[in-house]
Design brief:
Radius of gyration: 24 Å
Largest sheet: 4 strands, antiparallel
Shape: elongated
Helix content: 55-70%
Length: 295
């Protein structure tokens, strides 16, 4: 009888073991928000950006509206709409993320906001980099901080719009909405911070991987395969395929390589068959022989 794996137990165990990293990520992102974003009026998308705008409007009429508390309340209200489709796991991970982020944002605000800033470019870049590291750590652990992702799910459910494009549109709209409150310059720098943040988040979540996957179609597949296995010391798999035009059966070679080996495989393929078809694509993560261990 096949051995059954308790997936729920594994998920719970991973969440508990990843909790310190989630806390650290939320603290880092909150620090960047307090140190670089809020003092300079950089509303870099999402609910945090919206809360920054509301906090500034409240300050002008003498009302204190803490950004962290605002994000917690807004996320909690949004979560009630999507909780049915997310399940318990989604709720726990999301609530943990946005509560910790909101808590740290208001906790760090008094001492951090006293630091003066004059260069919007540096604030946008460092705010995007540091907050990207924080958010990346949270996302890498499978948690999230709610925000525009939750709004995107709600809109996508009631329309045919894709979640990714909807989230991007929301973030751009928040940046644009900050222009009348702060200035057009601030809005443009906020957009810059948002772009930098996105790149850093991807780098942290992917773990800095630089692997590529190669598909090779060639009549000289045996010679190419030999060089991959013995000269490059990489594992290789034959995928059986048939040419649509020739109706001829022949294997497609598939293997994963590092970025610096791309030029090597191009040379190997060209030397054996100048007419071969070589397809190279990005790989987010490679686990196994020649790469990192699954442990």
């Amino acid at each position: 009888m096949a051995r059954r794996i308790d997936i729920n137990r594994i998920i719970q165990s991973q969440f508990v073991s990843d909790l310190p990293l989630i806390i650290a990520g939320c603290a880092i992102a909150a620090f960047a928000t307090d140190a670089f974003m809020i003092p300079n009026g950089l509303a870099a998308g999402g609910l945090t950006g919206l809360a920054t705008i509301i906090a500034e409007l409240g300050r002008r009429v003498g009302i204190s509206l803490p950004v962290g508390l605002q994000t917690i309340i807004m996320n909690a209200l949004l979560l009630l709409v999507v909780v049915r489709s997310g399940g318990l796991k989604y709720v726990v991970q999301t609530v943990t993320g946005f509560v910790l982020f909101g808590f740290f944002t208001d906790l760090f605000a008094p001492p951090v906001l006293q630091v003066s800033h004059s260069d919007l470019m540096l604030s946008a870049l460092w705010g995007g980099i540091i907050s990207g590291i924080g958010y990346g750590l949270v996302f890498r652990c499978g948690a999230n901080t709610g925000g525009s992702d939750t709004i995107g799910q709600i809109i996508a459910r009631k329309s045919s719009l894709p979640v990714g494009a909807t989230v991007m549109a929301i973030d751009v709209a928040v940046c644009a909405a900050s222009a009348p409150v702060f200035s057009l310059t601030n809005a443009l720098y906020a957009a810059l911070a948002m772009v930098v943040m996105g790149y850093v988040v991807d780098a942290v979540v992917d773990g800095g991987n630089s692997q590529r996957a190669a598909f090779i179609i060639s009549d000289a597949y045996e010679d190419i395969e030999h060089d991959i296995l013995h000269a490059m010391d990489r594992g290789c798999t034959r995928l059986m395929a048939q040419g649509s035009w020739t109706k001829k059966d022949r294997p497609v070679l598939f293997f994963v390589l590092s970025r610096r080996e791309v030029s090597i495989i191009k040379t190997v393929v060209y030397e054996h068959d100048a007419n071969a078809m070589l397809i190279i694509t990005d790989v987010n993560e490679a686990i196994g022989y020649g790469f990192k261990s699954i442990g």
